[in-house]
């Protein structure tokens, strides 16, 4: 190929040539790890020795009879359901308050958003100290009102909800941020019409604010659901899944299976189950968002 033909060919395909490095990089970072993980899920793989043996779908079949997996799934469901529900309720309440004009509103916004800015590991270590049975601030405060100190992290009945409290404290500001932005973007005309019709604040909220805010609500809840379904860091630091696996989540159990029990193939199979679960939940919300025409406007 002479230089002129090469020049014409490069001009015609310049857009593909410019995109090629990015496409190759994306394939290396997404497709290759996915294929590698799928292959690992069909094998038994030892972290220590690197030995592999093909077992087909045996790893996936083992999940259905694994009591620890179902325990971790139940813990994850409780953590996600309770945590996200409370975060949404508190976030919406605070967003409604902070959307009004009052003295010091900017300062209160900064205070409310501060927990979200902290690294999750720092939050976990801080609350681990707060929850200390003998010297923790939480039991000291309970003692001031005559209540006996609790086993926050070491009680099987309280440990999971103690972790949920930490998640609520840290991530309610995330809900607040999205919902507040949604409230401030709502048009004024429907409220003016509702005021003319004599609607109360509650009626205006029910028939105007909530329907118009639905897309922002769905996005906020979707993002938090996706995050809590794979919660790992705070659980790992604060309880390690204990006591008696009462706080073990799916992500933590995947880690334990792969690196503690030396069964990478089984851990990878569970990772795909978690991926499918997250995808199904996400698609439900995305379908609703499409129905709200969020992606078509």
Which SSEs are present, and which pair or pack?
Elements: H1 3-12, H2 14-41, E1 43-45, E2 52-54, H3 58-64, H4 67-98, H5 105-117, H6 120-130, H7 137-144, H8 159-184, H9 189-196, H10 201-229, H11 233-238, H12 250-260, H13 264-291
Helix pairs in contact: 2-13, 3-13, 4-8, 4-10, 5-8, 8-10, 10-13, 12-13
| Alpha-beta content class | mainly alpha
Uncertain runs with pLDDT below 50, 5 residues or more?
none
Categorize the overall geometry. flat
Which oligomeric form is depicted? single chain
The first-level CATH class of one domain is given as Mainly Alpha
Radius of gyration over all CA atoms, rounded:
25 Å
> What's the CATH H-level superfamily name of one domain?
MetI-like
Helical amount: over 70%
> How many distinct beta strands?
2
CATH architecture of one domain: Orthogonal Bundle
Mean pLDDT: 87
Distance between the termini: 48 Å
The number of helical runs is 13
How are helices and strands ordered from N to C? HHEEHHHHHHHHHHH
Main sheet record? 2 strands, antiparallel
| Amount of beta strand | under 5%
CATH topology (level 3) name of one domain: MetI-like fold
Read across the widest sheet, the strand sequence of neighbours is: 1-2
């Amino acid at each position: 190929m002479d230089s002129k033909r090469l020049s014409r060919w490069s001009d015609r395909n310049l857009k593909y040539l410019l995109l090629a490095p990015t496409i190759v990089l994306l394939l290396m970072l997404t497709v290759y790890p996915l294929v590698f993980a799928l292959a690992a899920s069909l094998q038994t793989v030892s972290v220590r020795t690197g030995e592999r043996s093909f077992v087909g779908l045996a790893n996936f079949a083992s999940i259905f009879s694994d009591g620890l997996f179902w325990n971790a799934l139940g813990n994850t469901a409780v953590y996600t359901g309770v945590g996200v529900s409370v975060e949404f309720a508190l976030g919406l309440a605070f967003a409604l308050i902070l959307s009004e004009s009052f003295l010091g509103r900017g300062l209160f916004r900064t205070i409310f958003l501060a927990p979200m800015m902290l690294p999750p590991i720092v939050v976990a270590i801080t609350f681990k100290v707060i929850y200390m049975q003998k010297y923790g601030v939480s039991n000291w405060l309970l003692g001031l009102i005559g209540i006996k100190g609790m086993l926050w992290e070491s009680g099987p009945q309280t440990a999971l909800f103690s972790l949920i409290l930490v998640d609520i404290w840290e991530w309610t500001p995330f809900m607040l941020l999205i919902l507040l932005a949604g409230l401030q973007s709502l048009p004024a005309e429907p409220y003016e019409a509702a005021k003319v019709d004599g609607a109360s604040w509650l009626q205006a909220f029910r028939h105007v604010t909530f329907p118009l805010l639905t897309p922002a609500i769905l996005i906020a809840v979707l993002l938090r659901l996706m995050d809590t379904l794979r919660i790992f860091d705070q659980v790992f630091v604060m309880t390690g899944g204990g006591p008696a696996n009462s706080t073990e989540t799916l992500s933590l159990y995947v880690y334990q299976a792969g690196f503690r029990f030396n069964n990478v193939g089984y851990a990878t199979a569970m990772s795909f189950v978690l991926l499918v679960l997250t995808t199904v939940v996400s698609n439900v919300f995305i379908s609703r968002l499409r129905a709200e025409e969020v992606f078509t406007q």
